[in-house]
Amino acid sequence: MIRRNYVNHLISHSMLDEAAIHLDAAARIEPDALYLALRRAELAKAHGDQVETALG
To answer: How many angstroms from the chain centroid is the CA of residue 5?
Structure first.
């Protein structure tokens, strides 16, 4: 749970590569955790937002 919360913090601070690493680790520890899908969706959205911003 702590790692998933840390992932949320990383996403909110646009540290997306690090967030992905910790999200993968969280999935290995708690593969059935319900919030994993939510965090993956948030990470995907954040990646999309960065691409959209870069493209202007």
So the answer is: 10
pTM score, whole prediction: 0.79
Residue reference for tokens 């911003």 = 53
Tally the residues of the chain.
56
Burial class (CB in 10 A: 0-12, 13-18, 19+), 15: middle
Domain ranges, residue 38:
2-55
Residue whose pair of structure tokens reads 């995907």 in the numeric block? 44
Which pLDDT tens digit goes with each residue over 32-50? Answer: 998 899 999 999 999 887 7
